[in-house]
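so my prof wants the structure for this chain in the tokens format not the other one, which i didnt know existed until like an hour ago. anyway here's the sequence
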Amino acid sequence: MFTISTEELVKESQEIAQLKIIKEELEKLFCIQFTASIELQEDCHEIIAIIESIGDSNNLKTTADKALQTSKYLSILANKYHDLISEKDINIIVSHSNNLKLWADVFIAVSEVHQDFTENSSLETLKEWTEWIELFSEAIDGQNNFSEETWINIDKLAKKIIAVASVKNDNESQNNHYKRRLKNSASFILSSSESNKSSTSRRLVIGKQSYQELLEESQRRIHRIDELEAKNAEEAKMQSDIVDFLEKFLK
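here's what i got, hopefully its the right format
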């Protein structure tokens, strides 16, 4: 009989949230804005400090509170300095604010899951897991910055849920109702995972070489174009343009 433990759920939810990536992206963005205002610089440092403290907490409700606090501060920052920050960067800040607010809801839902998930779970347990997975589905929908490894972990979790939530009869009981909701959400998550794994890995294989290996080999061979002897100025310029293009494309 398949079982998904609450410990596994907590671990996966915290890792998939990838708060470290959010912190790194905001740090990179804030570095550009630091020279605009001393006050802005101080506010940015305060936000980064809060994000760093999120990962130090072992209590999910505390984690959720800090994520909500960061979300609020990012929203205030975007409004307060809208005249100093570009519209593009404002949109990035607002996006992270919304994302952190949603993950806070996910963490709260996880903290309210009290029992492992099995095919014989009680109605109360099924409701708790359903509340979590529907928020989780919303949190990962449209995400494009997850690593391939993270999508693989999401994939494994979704497959386990589908296996546990399988309905073995047509009885329209409340238990089966929640099992179907769990299975439908897990199927959506699995579909998102498959789609994103394919777009992030793009493992094109020619012969025995993967896409990544071919990319690295191409990067090593760019300089050989310069060794070709141009017959005239037009060919020399064309070779130079090709090298410039490839160096940018293959970075």
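also thought this was worth mentioning. The two ends are 48 Å apart (CA to CA).
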